[in-house]
Structure formats: structure tokens, C-alpha cells
Write a structure and sequence with these properties.
Four copies of one chain form a homotetramer.
Chain A lengths: L3 E6 L15 H16 L4 H6 L6 E8 L8 E11 L3 E10 L2 E11 L12 H7 L9
Antiparallel strand pairs in A: 1-3, 2-5, 3-4, 4-5
């Protein structure tokens, strides 16, 4: 199984008055990580959208363990924990060095630009299959 | 049981190129809703912070059902589904009229400004108890 | 001359680790204020977009005087300082009670959905004219 | 004169329903660019804050020329157009390849953590002087 690594640096604007990154920031980082995985698999999401294959987030969750601070270098490790013809679920872990800061997931269904459910397409599901975890948590 | 109603209007900046509110926006609306419930209970979060009682989000989840559009009037209904001496869990439902757009939750633990766990305090837990749901989902 | 008043409450997520609202937040508040003025004038921006009359921001500026804090009630006063057939400039002042926190402006040109310049239309320019300041600063 | 180059990739969440990056996004990118310049000069802003030398934005402006789209690779070129003992002004240009998308600026004054004006310090002003433009626009 492959894991996609995405590197981000915490923006000042992402912190709040508690001094750490606001909990909503993780969703934006997860989005970057997911975008990176798809691109590495040869299917840039931008192109998928142009082809009429959208993958809106329909469900998400996140657990914060340690706060991320301004200018921290964070690595988001991404894998896939569910891969169906019309749905996909990504799992993310945010690391600062050896320290796990947070873990989360997003679930997506594939729709057309008119919001009608459709198949993701074998070209994409096969291309991203290497990042699939064997055992779904 | 009481339900706190918070009214928001979807900002242009909250939409993304799919034309609907970005999925992270719900967390910001939930934050407003939670702030409103605490204020209605007589314990503005701003004052709680000044007293050294912080309630950071340690876990959250959200399920999107229908997209919220720019300038939509949304009502966030908030209740409490867990109320302990050191932790609290809020439940949110986002409505556009009679239509349920999304539902989510956040879990919080109480800490000092030094991030040490502490009790929320009976004054607050008693004040917010009326918004507690009987049956936790 | 009329002045449009828009009331906002500073969100927790809008603060940064300096403890005050991030300087970019003002642009989001100005957007709400502008949206409110257009709506009060009978031309909701949402409808203008549906009619193919977009008003993208092409230039903006802001000067911060005093920081806005979490949960502050802010009033944004909006007027118009330039009103042409194809362009409009709004001026904003952010107040916390009697205290001026910031002032800014945005300039917009009217375009079609294909990004081609077009006239705003007399119906809109006449409707918003009452908010126009006599002397442009 | 040196120019600092900062590379960013437009996030999905940064776009709005017009399909391009929201005009407030530039301020976040400028912040990353400024952070990068300071770090390259040997004075990470994170450390400056720890030393009690804050550089809040007190004024800013931006002019948008062409819209930035999702997943675009943007380069922000940063220089300094004013460098005083207590204030500094940065100038930014956002490029997509050879195409200028936007240009903007931010002005900062140096304050202590108690918000009292103070000198930036010769160590920092000398370190960032190589990025200063000769002719201020």
C-alpha cells in the first residue's frame, strides 16, 4: 500500500486567538493532500471536473490531538479506506515530525455537474487503488 | 429540552467553484451557533476564556445532505448530546426553511490557558443543561 | 446621502494568534455590507448574477486603526464614492460603538458571466444612487 | 535588489462561485510570501514574535488583473518599498507564468506584545535591506 505525503506550512491566518491552527484548517489541508494524491495518480481533480466528474465531500470527521502552531511544517499522510464505483473515502494523518497532531477522513460521492450520481470511472479507481488500505478501520 | 436557533446568511466568500458553501464553512457556522447557545445560557465564551476556561474542539464530524448557496438564510439548531464535568458535545442541524442541509457535531474538553485539563464548572454545566437531549444518538 | 449599516459579530475563527481579527476578515465583512446595501436597494446581488451582471472586486484597500476582538459587535457603514455606468466604488467604515476600527474600499467593474465588460444598468445605478457620497475622498 | 519568490498552489476552498480565487486570498498568499522573505533573511517571523517584535498589517491594497483558478501554480514576487526604523512596506506581484494576475502591498508598524510602538531593530532592517527597491512607486 502506498501513502501520499503532502507538506504544508501553517499560515498565520490559520491560527486563532488560542495560538494554534483553527480546527477547520485541517479540512483545507486534507483537501490539498487529496488533490496531491489524485495528481500523483495521474488524474488531476481539475481535469476530472472538466470531464464532469465531481467528488464533493459528503461527510467528514476529524480528531485533534496536539495543536499545530504558526509556521509549523506539517506532513499529511493520505490513504484510501473505501473505494467503490461511485464513492471514495480518504484517511488523513497530520504529523509534525514524529508527533501525530490529528487524524481525519472525508467521504465523497461522484456526481455530474448537474449533481446527478455517476460512476467515478475505472480509469480513476484503478489509478488510485495503490493507495488503498487493506483493512478499513 | 431547549434548542438554540442561530441564523446565518451564506457569504459569497464561503462558496467555492462548485457554487455551494465549502464543506468547511459548516464548522464556522457551528462555532457561531455554539457561541450563541453559551451566551443565551449566560456564559459568554469570551468571559469563560477570560476566566481560564477554554473549550477547544477536540473532535468533529459533519454530514452534508444538500448544498447551501450564496445568500441563503440558514438556521442552525443546536443541542447538547453529552455533558460531563470536563467535556461537552454539541449537535448541530443546518436548515434552509424545512430542508435539512447538514448535520454535525463537535466535542470539547475544558482546559486552562496552559492547556491543562480542568472542570468546566457547575455554574456553566447547570446553565447549559436545559439544551441537553435526553437520548444521545 | 444614505449610509447602509451592517452589523456583524467577530467569529472566533476570524481571530489570529495576535488575538484580534485577521486583517483579511475586513474584506469578508465589507462583502456582507455591500451585499446588504444592494439588497436594501432592491437588487440582491444573487439576482444580479442570475441576470448576468457580475460585479467582481478589481481593486481594494484597507487601513486598520484598532484591532477587532472575538465576539465584538461591529457596525460596517457603507457608502458609494464612485458610480459610473460600468464601475462602482464602495467605501466602508468599521465601528465598535463610537470607535473607528478600520476603513476601506472596494472597486468593481460590471462584467457578464463570460467576463466581458458591460453596463451595470440604469435600474441598479439609480437604485443605489441614494448611498452615493457627494465628495469623493 | 533581490526579489523573493514564493510559490503557491490555489486551493479549492480559495475559489468562490465565480470560479476564481476570492479576492481576499491574495492577502493570505502575501502573508506567506512575506513570511518567506523574512525567513530567507534569517529572521523567521515566529522568532521575531517570540522576541516581542510584532509586525501587524496596518494598511493594505491590492489590484486584481486576471483571475487565479483552482490548482494554478502562482509565484508571488516580493520586494520592500519602504524601510524605516519602525515601519516597513512590502510590495507583491502574483504571476502565473508570464502573466501578471495581481499586485498588492502591505504596510506594517513594529509593536511589542502590548501593542506599544517600538523599533524593528537594526539586525532585522539590515538583514532585509537587500530586498528593498530603489525607487518607491
Amino acid at each position: 500500500m502506498r501513502t501520499h505525503a503532502c507538506h504544508i506550512n501553517v499560515r498565520y491566518a490559520e491560527t486563532d486567538r488560542m495560538g494554534v491552527a483553527h480546527h477547520s484548517s485541517y479540512l483545507l489541508w486534507f483537501e490539498l493532500a487529496r488533490t496531491g494524491l489524485l495528481k500523483e495518480a495521474g488524474h488531476a481533480y481539475r481535469e476530472m471536473e472538466a470531464e464532469g466528474r465531481l467528488l464533493p465531500v459528503i461527510e467528514y470527521g476529524c480528531r485533534m490531538i496536539v495543536g499545530a502552531e504558526y509556521d509549523d511544517d506539517i506532513r499529511i499522510d493520505t490513504t484510501i479506506t473505501e473505494l467503490r464505483s461511485r464513492a471514495v473515502r480518504f484517511r488523513y494523518r497530520a504529523w509534525r515530525g514524529e508527533e501525530l497532531l490529528a487524524e481525519g477522513w472525508t467521504r465523497h460521492v461522484c456526481v455530474t455537474t448537474d449533481n446527478t450520481p455517476r460512476r467515478i470511472g475505472d480509469d480513476v479507481t484503478e489509478a488510485i487503488a495503490p493507495w488503498r488500505e487493506e483493512a478499513v478501520r
